[in-house]
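Example A, followed by Example B.
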Amino acid sequence: MNDRLLVELEKLLAEIPKSVPVFVFGGFAVDGHHGSLTREHSDVDLLCWRRDVDAVREAMKRAGHDTELFSHPQDSELVYKFNTKDTDKTFGCQIIDEAPDGQFQISFWHFSKQLYPLDYIDPLYAELSGVSFPVVSLDFTRLLKDQEISFYNELKEEYPEKFARREEKYKNCLHDIKILSGGEVKVI
């Protein structure tokens, strides 16, 4: 799966105009910062600016992927992400907004409109299996993984049936946190 996803990412990046920044976050960012693939991934997580949503969606279409937009569950007026419609959900893209004081704003399903410093998305590049791609900072990667594990721990306590449907994602998040903390892992 990783090889297919990296090929799809390379294809997509070739379709996105150079003037349109996108950033990989999530599991591939963890492995990118680590310098090698450490687990199987089910998708590629991206960030893009709201002003660039149409350009990124058009690039995805040229790369062979139709997309669908999603409104935030706590604010139906807020379109906060789009995913590819393919069976495997190859790409998920969170939409970021400019904010005052050198910050940007992002929403995820479990929280909305969080502010972070712009230097979290300074252009850094990682390479896996010969594919180079832009990644978010290591600090932002760690912070997002910490927030994700907190969300899963709360979900496990409050809604065990919902957690059960996300247990594999929880295990991947624990793995990623181990990588980010310098723990020993088997490189695949």
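Example B, a separate protein, is given below in the same form.
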Amino acid sequence: MIDAVADAVRKPGADLTEFTPTDNMQKALEYLCSKDYDETVTGLCQAVGISRQAYYLWFDNPKFVNWWNGHRERHFGLSLGKVYTALLKAASHAAGKDDPKFNPQAMKLYLERFDTDYAPLRREEITQMSWPDILAQGDAAAEQDQADKQETEQPKE
């Protein structure tokens, strides 16, 4: 798994700044990505073989911080599919409110941060609409999407 993450991190265009990380910095990034950033600093340092002090000293270098943050943003942006999967499971009742992984507020926050197409309705728009109106609006949008798709698929004369 770490090798797959390493390949993704090292692919052309992956360097987001002019900073060149040390091998340990690269290992730390690869390890955190393989864990989806779900690791303590102590666990990270033990896995990479560095001291906590060394880890924290890296952040004194602004170029390192830019490099690190750029890759973190890239990782979370690429992880958007996992959030959609969790949303789908929650919506289809595969995960319920008793499931410790079910956190709709966290999902909403993630979508607002990383999905550029996510645009929730304002509270006023939601409360002013009845469920039949909301469903009708969704049906109308789906019909328009279908019509647009058919229009683009028709051969031009």
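On Example B: The radius of gyration is 22 Å.
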